[in-house]
Automatic annotation (TrEMBL), chain B:
Name of protein: Transporter
Membrane-crossing residue ranges in chain numbering: 46-70, 82-100, 141-159, 171-193, 214-237, 257-278
InterPro entries found in the cross-reference section: ABC-2_transporter-like
Domain of life of the source: Bacteria
Coiled-coil spans in chain: none
Record keyword Isomerase present: no
Amino acid sequence: MTSNENTNRAPERGPIIEAVGLGRDYVRSEGPFLRRTRRRIAAVEDVTFTVRPGEIVGYLGPNGAGKSSTMKMLTGILTPTSGTVRVAGMEPSRHRTRLAREIGVVFGQRTTLWWDLPLRESLTLTRHLYRVPSDLHAERLAELTELLELGPFLDTPVRQLSLGQRMRGDLTAALLHAPSLLVLDEPTIGLDVVSKSTIREFLLRINAERGTTILITTHDLGDVERLCDRVMVIDHGRLAFDGGLSELRATVPTPRVLVVDLAAPVPEIEVEGARTVRVEGPRQWLELADNPARVIERVARDHEVVDLTLREPDIETVVSALYRGAAPERGALAS
Amino acid sequence: MADTNVPARSGPERPRVGDLLRPFRDYRLLAWTWVRSAAQYPLSMILMSLAVAVSVLTQAGAVIILFGHAGSLSGFTVYEGLMVFALAASAFGIADLFIGSVERLGRHIRTGSLDAMLIRPVSPLIQLAADEFSPRRLGKVVPALVLLGVSLAGADIEWTVAKALLLPTMLLSGVLICGAIWVITACLQFFVADAREAANTLTYGGQALSEYPLAIYGAEIVRSVTYVVPLAFISWQPALFVLDRSDPLGMPEGLRYAGPFVAVLLCVCAALAWRFGLRHYRSTGS
């Protein structure tokens, strides 16, 4: 980090994202030609939230829940049909180009780097497109190179990079213009454990040191638990939850599942403190209602156990449970 | 990196002279990046350029054979016919070189790469036009320009200062007309994802049509390519002008000077079509 790092950080100001009653309808045409009917479908409905500078917010929800429509409205790709949104003090759909210089966006499943050129060249191009003075660029690149350990592959063509390396490259490209808000869409999708953790540590660091606000969509519970102070859950276009992660867990208690591998197939295990939800040959899935250690002890007393795994409910399950407003469906965790 | 918020946020930006050139600088930068990208596969680039050049020369060969056999068509000799061909091929080739890749808009919409363009502080039209810019497209332009030189030298032309000055202007107008048609037809893909084929009937079909003296097609067609889709100003009207020929179909003589105006008008239409299409996209997000 440079010496003037924290000296001229913008003073405490209003929210960096402010959405009020944000909505987005799609018109679907259905039926045969000439008798076609038009139906309005709400992808996002009456979503209100604010994000303050320096927050890390997880934006969760099942596929098709309205996550990406919201992201598109925040970045100015999509124009809202109702409500208002302001990002970094601007109306995204009206000032899309100007906003682009203020925010960094990474789509996990799509790279913005030049496939056939060394990573360094894509980053240089970014500098020109975002009009970053060359001394500042050099300074930031040096810093990001160190933090993300880009050194060994800066001069390698992007097509030869591993997924994790490429994601680090994409993050660098999104940060070279020092945006105050970083919008990440599934940044760890498909990455191995080590790469995931490198990226998470990095995000925490830039958040702590630069105060970069981060809005992240992910299906990875690890991302959420490691990174987010706050989660927002959207489903069927509506904001269903906005608060801390532990609060979310408390709202919807979801049992853990014990996967037991037995020496030989047996009928459904009946044991106190758990409920067998699935049997597949010698493997059985037990939904826990009691202390796992005790249940394991009881199971091991009656059966020859070869292996055990304890599964935490993943965020998808918590989220879908939130929607049914009850405990998860029988066997929902067993898949 | 504390300078995070130094630019912007201080009210609306005032336009500066440098900003007007900005799109061109961005275009050059993106195109150059694509060229270096393509240069990673030099053999492929060379072979593709040659293949394109051969196809242009083959088409020119067809023109020569046709006029050679017939002696003349609608009063056009071989060289004159070749000139019409070369004017059309040059204009389309140059337009294709700079802006032809807008026809891939539909693909960018489908794969979501248009969204990636929209989050950059550069006009998506510039990014789209520069997309996969490759020197292989010179394979179209260079032979066309050589043929143009050959035909101008071979045809019986009384050169004047006005002609020497106006011919490049007319060629430029032709390039702008082709480019504008390219953009306008590409915009259809904002509404119909697979409109590319339909659009190609106008772009490539238009090129094929304007490679021959329009007099061979008959009045109705000539009228529609003059007043509806102004292809006549790409090769036909400039040829009449250079050859001091009166219009065989009796259309107004003044039309031959209208090229630049038509080009500007069409470019304005293209800009409006693009804005309209992009707004539609951003309000449907298809």
